[in-house]
Amino acid sequence: MKKKNFLNKVLLTSYMISTFSEGIILPIYAIFVQKIGGDILDAGLALGIFLMFEGIFTYFIHTKKRNHDKKIKIMISGWFVWLIGILIYLVISSKWTLFLAQIFLALGNALADPIYDEEFASNTNKNSSEKQWGLFEGGISFTQGLSAMVGGIIASIFGFEILIYTMAITATISFILILYYFRRVRK
């Protein structure tokens, strides 16, 4: 039971770090888009591309039944594709590379998130599931709020380049944690 609780904390921590990585740019996203030569319409298009592609990918990817090992491979692949999307931010120079990053992020989320939810639910202790789901949902809101503040501070003091490096570093840590989680689960 202790191993299961520890692993669920690793799973949850990985997700919160990924939430932080994505959320760090959200409150100043339109300013970032403007810095690469885009405008408010491009910021809206980028968000729309992300959400619509995530919806389409999620629907088509998760319509068939798979065994647990296959799901794990899909989830790890999703986390990796998502990490690539974050890393693309390091080379964004136009709205077109921004749109490409959004498609990678959407595909990564579509591959990983539904399986993450299932994995988290399967590790949730039935006697305290409300508490654990409260921790998950509250953790997301807290992490998004924290990342919004930290992102604003980093961008205003150090600029967008350091902000993007911070996104990349935290995304990499999140990916390493998810690999650690699945390696431990298989033991």
Features:
single chain, 187 residues, mainly alpha, Growth Hormone, Chain: A, 7 helices
In short:
The protein is mainly alpha-helical and 187 residues long. Helix content is 84%, strand content 0%.
Q: How does the SSE layout of this entry go?
A:
Blueprint: H1 2-23, H2 29-35, H3 40-61, H4 68-88, H5 95-123, H6 129-158, H7 160-185
Report on this structure.
It is globular and about 50 Å long. The chain has helices at 2-23, 29-35, 40-61, 68-88, 95-123, 129-158, 160-185. The protein is mostly helical. It has one domain (2-185): Up-down Bundle (Growth Hormone, Chain: A), CATH 1.20.1250.20.
Largest β-sheet summary: none
Q: What's the total count of β strands?
A: 0
CATH architecture: Up-down Bundle
What share of the residues lie within helices?
A: over 70%
Which H/E pattern describes the elements? HHHHHHH
The first-to-last residue Cα distance is 14 Å
If you average the pLDDT, what whole number results?
91
Strand content: under 5%
Number of domains: 1
